[in-house]
Amino acid sequence: MLKSRNSVRFILIPVLLLMMSSCHKEIFVECESFDNKGGWVVDPQFVEQMGSPYLMAHGMGEVVENATSTIQITSGGNYHVWARTTDWAPGNWSSPGQFNIWLGKEKLPKSMGHYKGWGWNYAGKVKVKKGATMVQLEDLTGFNGRCDALYISNRYRTPTNQQDYLADMRNRFSGYAEKPGETLAFDLVVVGGGIAGCAASIAAAEQGLKVALIQDRPVLGGNASSEIRVHTLGIYGHFERILKMLDTEHYPNGSPEALADEKKRHENMESYSNISLYLNYRAFQANSDEQLISSVDARHTSTGEAIRFEAPYFVDCTGDGWIGYWSGAEFNYGREPDSLYGESWEKYGELWSPEREDQQVLGASVLWRTTHSDSAYEFSEVPWAMDVVGSYAARKGTWNWELISDRWHQVDHAEQIRDHMLKAIYGSFYNEKQKEGADHLKLEWVSYLLGKRESRRLVGDYVYTFNDMRESRTFPDAVVQEIREVDVHYPQNKLDESKPDFLAEAMFYPADPYQIPYRSLYSKNIGNLFMAGRCFSCSHVGLGGPRVMRTTGQMGAAVGYAASLCTSHQCSPRELYENHLSEYMALVLTSNQD
Question: 261 in the Ramachandran plot: left (φ > 0), alpha (ψ -120 to 50) or beta?
């Protein structure tokens, strides 16, 4: 059976008391560690930007059930309460993310979610008795109120919001050690549980490796999961047997049919006894020396438990290239100038390949869908969304709900991008509801997770480009095959300023069969790092064809097999290409055999 870490061996106490002196009493609450999260969800997408996972009231306009937890008050009396939170849609209107804090039977006097930017908001003072006391977050709007942490003190002293102070504060109160308390050893560590990460794990496990798969969500599949719901595209190449365990039917994007494919995916992963699955663990550090990674550290997104994963080889399937980034791997971001690779296509000019490099990449989508309810469905006004949507109206989100901008970085500004898309969804749906005959139209599902297409691209020994596809170049180490057209996007308002900024248009270049070499799937300068998925070694336009999930799954399977042979020969990924290529290609070409 699969060793699932959904049920951890110990749970960190979510609230820890620090007595700094005989009279000063402080309590720090990590909200993602609440005993009962109610209708609130844990959002771990933006840890690198704002410091921690947080709780969010994702009610799609309907108030969610309270999140509750129990804390210990060692001495009764008056306590001041702060919440680290934000107004995610600030302006001249009532905040969409308001919530109240309750301590015991008392509601704090000030509601939260009114201040722009993440910071410590003062909720007020309350008198509490000694002993076990319940703390609650009460959602007031249903529109994505969020709370990172609570600070409770018998002194009025607002915590500092600087990142280094916050990190030290979390460590002091939580008891986090600089080094994780548990260290585990594997033959291969795969970070990222999308289709590429799952395929890499299966391929390596079938060759006898002991594999750890680290995934920061409770489910597998990445963009194909039930949380994001994008169907898989591309061909199977040499890895049909493996990829059919993981892919999806061709349902409409956003369809609940994703749940059935997710169940299949998990059942198939569970059939491998030598894959240890660490769900809800988010990697936060790659430890490296002399251009080799020795370990990766990951923390549970709710309990805070940290584990160090050691291995001779690592696979970066994070999409954003985090393992490579932390270990010092070379990477590219944005669109290269046309002069670098000569990828121009006259039909689309600078929309395709610009004269000068810029920071624009393929964008991120947030999918959503509606249904018709049996009774009339009310949806409140959303004035905080109207400056984004104007008069635009819609009743579902398709692939082209995509924010592309060189103003917002897909990694550094990911939360702002997600929130902009939420405004687009709620505002467009509100406008649709104003139409005649829309009384029974109801929001059925809105993702709160970004479905990303592109961000960092790690540099390998070979950078795959559009010209490799256009010229049908062949490679001795061709491990990925594809026939899908090149599909590059631009914002619709680039050519028509009257269009909203959250809609994209696609440019297609028809393709003959093309190949991607193994040399694009390992790092150029980190000696034991593979990469598979949209962070593989390619140019911006080169990513346009093979970025879909069956194709990235081929990459994953290819590096899983490569890791097994690297283990057998005690060699680096580069040395496998230089000294054992024929053996490796024979393994790849026979991978569909049972």
Answer: alpha
